[in-house]
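ingest -> fold -> write
write: protein_1
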Amino acid sequence: MMKGKAFQWSAAEAAASDAVAQWAADGPGGAIVGFDRDGLRFAVSGGLADLNHGLPFTPDTVSRCASVTKHLLCAMVLSHPEAIALDDPLGAHLPELAPALAEVTVARALSMTGGLADTRESLSLLGLSSAAPSEAGTLMAYHARMTGLNFAAGSEVSYSNAGYRLVEEALKRRGLTLVGFVAEAINGPLGTRFAVPEHWGDPVLGLAPGYWHDGAQWQPGGQGMHLSAAGSLAASATDMARWVAALLAGQGVLSGLWDGMSAQRSLSDGTETPYGLGLYRVPLGDHVLIGHSGAQAGYRAQFLTLPEAGVGVVVLSNRDDVKALSLVLATFAALLEAPMPVPVAPGTLPTGLYVEADGPRWVEVKATSLVHMGTEEALYDGGEGWAESCSGTAPMRLRWTGAALEGSIGHAPCRLLPVGEAPLPEGLEGHWHMPEEGAVFEIRDGMVHWGIGPSRRAAPLTPLGTGRALFLMADGPARRPVCLVKTGADSLTLGLNRARAVPYVRLR
């Protein structure tokens, strides 16, 4: 019950059914499950789990959960205070890290406030395809060669998978593995079939292939990079609901874990952030929902809960065009008779490109969304001219002053100026490389040339002013705008939202 009113489970099921009905019967699909303390309240599904064999997607279909994995690692950390503490610096467990990374605490690494450069986006900026294989050991060695952070630890909240990879490695060196935790704390007691494969091709019983659409047909998703605790979980919607319900109940060895993970975290200046430890907060009317999202090539996942009532909704899908957060919010809005967030009115923020006075931060304002350094977020009406992201992983609050966009991104104050006519930075022509990583690209005639043989691509540079420019990087289904910053006569950096300053020098 809530404030004397019964939850509207029939309305929630109807909203979920309407959502799955939008997926064509001969295309990939997904499932939406609602639950409370007594078990499942509804389970609906649509589309196919496997396009090759025509198998239907059901609430029991196993799908990749991607970043929903993160709360499992945090539960494991809190379950083993004898092995690792939230206040420990990463360097206490991983002595090979450079000083800037070594000083980041476990809590900051897990709460997205550590400034650690994301593994996958860093590799993209070396020109390494998402399909290229890699192993845990070589990726750890790569992080050990990194010398800087995206931002000073504790000054901003910004999503990165790297902290989870590093903390998982720290636990492994203490003899603790995620597969062991899942077996002992989840599958054994609950009878679930969670799997945490290390590689995309590892066999997982009943796993549905994931799909993305190339504009003409569905294509199978894939990833070559070693799967870490940042995103290795595979599970069904019904098993996920069973686990989250048990976590909320907090009985036995699970006692206190939810409270520890969902507790509000803060920046160094005391500003509270929506991201805790593998869980984040999302407002819906007068309510605060807590859960997490996940996205991998061909998969989307989301769960949210109203913890005080012990209720929740899970979405798992094997098609990457699904807006999983919107589906869960719409289902919860029906359940709680709460209003959905109102999209920002077009024109609230003038469309176009904006950039800070210096540094790599830039945004592109669209009609009802904003692209921050390559990552797009929907914008909602914050009142009095404010536009807000309502995101637990990328909080934004901005308004137009008549001369600039002002407000905050990731709770860090920012002021972004419109991009006007500007020339490309001088001295860009030639080859640029990272000698320690073997990465190289060429700039010729205002174009970035990257790759080898038939994979070689060329992309035009768009000037942003004061030594900066954008170009589009293509990788499978992804098209990401990269910010180039000229830092010296023979040096520059490339940046995306989660890896903001990968350094290159001129190849002579």
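write: protein_2
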Amino acid sequence: MDGFYGYKYGRMRFWEILPGSLVWSTFFLGVALSFFAPVYVVVFIIVFDLYWFFRVAYFVIFLFVAWIAVRRAGKVDWAARVREVAGSDRVHHLVFLPTYKEELPVIRSTFRSFLSAHASHERMIVVLAGEERDAVRFRKNAAAIEREFGHRFKKIIVTEHPQGLPDEIPGKGSNLAWAGRRVAEVLEAEFPDVKDEDVVVSAFDVDTVVHPQYFAYLTYLYRTVPNPTRTSYQPVALFSNTIWTAPAPVRIAAFGTTFWLMGELARPERLWTFSSHSMPWVMLKDVGFWQRDIVSEDSRIFLQAFVHYHGDYRVTPMYLPVSMDTVAGKTYLESLKALYKQQRRWAWGVEHLPAMVAAFSREKRIPFSKKFRYLFNHLEGMYTWATAPLLIFLLGQLPLALVRDPDALIQAAPFTLQQIMQLAMAGVFVSGILSLTLLPPRPKTVKGWAWLVMIAQWMLLPVTFIAFGALPAIDAQTRFLLGRYLGFNVTKKGR
């Protein structure tokens, strides 16, 4: 099919323009009306801050629910429990590890985490998917991995994605799509007795370190949830492999992403797949594998399945973590630049809006209520991502400085906004406390007083919220508005 249900960049300009135009209209009107009708802007800011307060309040509730679920799941012996489930001994794990310019120690640590997992490695197939653009480094690394780990798994499959293929964006999605098709041929030729419905796929970033119980827990879910081939499986994504040595803004952004995802896990009706996650092999073959010409392949694969199965597809929460590296650079400034580009790439998920409109307009069997919910949640999420930090911390102060209305409501506005923000900051306090419970053990090379820094860093939240939240989102949506489409940016990482 040409694009996703006929949609490719530039073919539905109204829906590409809409998110960015809403954001810039809000800023333009907010500034202009602050001079000509500041009372209306003050009222809007008060209403918006109240909305944000209630949003923070229910976010904290769902975050705490998910945190409790994570603590409980971590205490369960899933390896023992899964042995009691019929058919679990037939489940095979197919793990994709796309890599580009990653060094051998990073790849090796991921393979070692697989060996440390409570899983039957003789039923695990690992795919190391490299790029022709990085052929010399990749081939050297792949040969080392096969020598060290080849005999420890059912099979290690090495694929190399050619460069310059038509109708592709160089990146993770096109690499996975190429690898998926090659792996399908290998499975059919070498393992004809392995049924498609007995294979569950995990698409991981190459620096992903899995929880020791991850594959046992995944097997248990795959054999016990209703209709297991109609759901993906989303774990908690931690970015904590290098958290102790990362700059403070990077740490705050990393925990912010984790907490956002945990809040979504507690509301699975809103949940999309994100970053490292798992899914049925049956689904991947049904939808034709990952889309090759987009940036946000981790969430698009969910949309592909949702549309293909006429809305009968969902995401099942996994309350165990997988851990990845934080972004890194050779210097503090390079780390911040890498963080900005990572957040902008994630904000490029705005590209799903016109794709959903195109698919939903053709797919008549998906209930209207589901279509509306997904479209609204996506548009509202992108809008508040880009606007909320600036409205709360900066733009909201302008009309208060300009208004000269004697009305009691206006006179009380600064006090009202201050009280609302103080209540909303309770979310920061909760996030700071919970972040300490998710930290890995402190390396011996890190001083003990680093714990104090881990607490004090949350004072930087307003700055981080703007610089590495709103601004990358505005950047992404403005590029989409102008038709300056973003390519795949590989996150810089280092150890």
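write: annotation protein_2
The mean pLDDT is 91.
The chain has 19 helices and eight strands.
pipeline exit 0
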